[in-house]
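Form 7-S
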Amino acid sequence: MRLAPYLRLLRENPAFARLYTAQLISFGGDWFATVALLGLSLELTGSSALAALVLVLQTGGFALTAPLAGTLADRFDRRKLMVAADLARVPIALAFLLARDPGTLWIAFVAVALLAVGAAVFEPSSSAALPNLVDPHQLPEANVLLGSAWGTMLAVGAALGGLVAATLGRDAAFIANAASFALSAALIVGIRRPLQQPREVGAAGGGVGSIGRSVGTAIAFARRSRVVASLLLSKTTFGVGTGVVLMLAVFGRNVFGAGDAGIGLLFAARGLGALLGPFLARSVVGLEDRGLLLGIRASLVVVAVCYALFPIAPTIWLAALLVFGAHLGGGSQWMLSTYGLQRSTPDAIRGRVFSFDYGLVTLTIALSTLLAGFLADALAPRLAVWTMVLLIVLAGSGWVWFSRPALARLDEPPG
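Output:
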């Protein structure tokens, strides 16, 4: 894996470097707060289902907001949207400080949902803007770096967040999260390169009534190409079994008895896999359409195998290694599908396509996590994990079947 092209991109493109740094800081704060909040929920309620609600609200709030946010990303200045989303999340993140007992835990849940609304505005805007922020030949490297940013700060943020929560207290983690949004906004304000191509204001439509049109635009575009449709369904396929991630908190705190630090370790292993996965995928399968689809197939297998072995790991360190392996696959498929969609989607509808992509996957993850929470309370932890793995296998098999015609056409010789 050669790092020189990535370092050169950061050095030569200060606008992209600002966006990349802003996302690193913001993601790090998110995981500080998530680890602390998962630990707080388990401590105050003893219920895995209520702890799952933290992750459900994160993804569900995102999914419900994403269609409208995609229209906004195609209609208004993407830089201003991202800055506004960051600044609005500062006071919301501080609301976590008010959750002190079971009676006030609802405040944290409301804050999680509102933070997800902000993320639903920020993330599609960022993904849609990226092809305008870098030159075409830089887009693969930019995608690898941004694809790994989430994993980088999950690895660092979750590990440090667990330690901070265990040593300085959870309030310190919540304050760090709020500060991260302010720093992110300050960095994005300084981006001077346009984040979208010139077009008439209001070209994408607006208002609540545009949600249906936004979804319709994305679906109509996907129907033109089985490759695009396969890429658009890739994240959602993985999302079907992503509720298994809730079990990292259950295993870290309850099965291995390591408290918030144990939760942080397993989430950090997840992040390290998601960090390295995009780099590995690019070097192994390349970035042509055929390689993208084959890479996603391989990622499905890796995720299923590693999580199938996770429940029988005798130590938390071996469990962390398996989590790392699973999310090498997860991080790979996220970058591969994102790059493929960016490359094939016109700028005028890119915000709506990505909001549909992210909205669909986050809705799937929300339902999967909710299911995992109930399974964790109703079944032994091992059985709960294996049930979620079975869902991954079933959904993955469906995706492989769906993408076969696209791959067959790509295998045909030209002419």
